[in-house]
Amino acid sequence: MFPSVALLSLSFLAIAYGQQVGTLTAETHPKLSVSQCSTGGSCQTLQRSVVLDSNWRWLHETSGSTNCYTGNTWDATICPDPVTCAENCAVDGADYSGTYGITTSGNALTLKFVTNGPYSTNIGSRVYLLSDDDENYEMFSLKNQEFTFDVDMSQLPCGLNGALYFVEMDQDGGMSRFPNNKAGSKYGTGYCDTQCPHDIKFINGEANILNWTSSANDPNAGSGQYGTCCNEMDVWEANSNGAAVTPHVCSVQGQTRCEGTDCGDGDERYDGICDKDGCDFNSWRMGDQTFLGSGLTVDTSSKFTVVTQFMTSDNTTSGTLSEIRRLYVQNGQVIANSKTTIPGMDSFDSITDDFCNAQKTAFGDTNSFEKLGGLPTMGEAFDQGMVLVMSVWDDHEANMLWLDSDYPTDANPSSPGVSRGPCATSSGVPATVESQSPGATVVFSNLKFGPIGSTYAS
Questions:
Q1: Catalytic residue among 237, 259, 397, 434
Q2: Model confidence, pTM
Q3: Is 232 noted as a catalytic residue in this protein?
Q4: Signal peptide: which range, if any (predicted)?
């Protein structure tokens, strides 16, 4: 995620994140089939499921139904300190469709933006792909491989983000490393990313209640003393007006709790252990404003296929990650990625370290991506295995302008790198998006992975 506050901006009601397991609501994971392909294009269907992130779940006292967290405030009696809170509070099962607007059908996952449930109104969601045991996250190692999916984001307007990405979470959600975590992957624990988000309720098996501050502009969010960091590969952050593919890297391996300067908050953005900006390829930002959008070359008014290839220096799964390629398939036609048309840059159509360095120079951006190791570091994260994440969210801090409009708003829109999409700088205000587009949805389907060239028909 691009902005410093992207993961703080997930807005939702009745959120909770616990380490004990509640029994008041049954947890049944929605089934989702995916395909593993082999050279030549033969694909095997795998029966998998998705699990809701624990940050959304009902968090209540283990001995009853009293909330441990309401709105954006902790119950100080139940949660006097981080460890006691983890012992006293249970995260419960989820009504995926009724409360959260999450449904699956065969190989398709639909995420609805606003869901009016029986007890609350839910905004956005985040789910992870589980392995065949329905207890652990599916782990992906994608070097010299490609990952492909279909997406329908025709009902996703300015200000929203339907995201598909990978993060370096623990396979079991942190249960083995942190004994206070009794819920694990089955209940969606252990989230991390390169923004080192502080809004996660439990980190390392302890409640993140120290110095907890309620959000000034989101009645259901807040932030604690700690953040949770790890490498992140944003394969797809998009709405019907724009899209970006962005690797982000860290100086640490695996989910890591941070505090202070290491988190890279505010003015210390470039002093932390993770690269928050990443190295993004957004066709509009890179100079082609006719490539992706409604009625354009990649027509976002209807479904299309996104193919992302992770090339290595020696074309083996053990080689060094050296290039991330993108292509699209729509209406039976393979569409090559757009090319950069930025003054001072060569004509790039993929992400390489040379592209990233040239982009940072052309845009005048700080090159923390190179400082923290660039694509080879991203490849090392895949060596460890990464978890697939799919989400829909709005942005309470930057109104998603970093994805689909001019950002920063006080910069000259004609300066290279500032214009990122066609949306107005007044768009994306969460209250407006939530009231005007409650029925917004994103549909991810036909997920496939395998050797280069195996997941789509050329």
A1: 237
A2: 0.95
A3: yes
A4: 1-18
Runs of H (alpha helix) within 294-343: none
Task: Please indicate, yes or no, if residue 190 is contained in any of the structural domains.
Answer: yes
Query: Any idea which residue has 């981080």 for tokens?
Result: 82
Is the CB of residue 115 less than 8 Å from the CB of residue 422?
Answer: no
Using pLDDT thresholds of 50, 70 and 90, give the confidence band for residue 372. very high
Q: What is the CATH number of the domain that holds 210?
A: 2.70.100.10
Q: Which domain holds residue 301?
A: 6-451
- Between the alpha carbon of residue 403 and those of residues 299, 315, 333, 410, 436, the distances in Å are 18, 32, 26, 16, 20
CB 72 within 8 A of CB 42: no
222: β partners:
214
Please identify which of the residues 27, 138, 168, 232 carries the catalytic annotation. 232
Q: What phi and psi values does residue 267 have, to the nearest 5 degrees? A: -70, -10
Which helix or strand (DSSP H or E) is residue 411 part of?
none
Measured CA to CA, the distance from residue 102 to residue 129 in angstroms comes to: 13
Instruction: List, for residues 101-154, the tens digit of each pLDDT value.
Output: 999 999 999 999 999 988 889 999 999 999 999 999 999 999 999 999 999 999
Domain membership flag for residue 263 = yes
Q: What is the pLDDT of residue 113?
A: 98
Number of domains in the chain: 1
Residue type, 395: D
Assess if residue 211 is contained within a domain.
yes
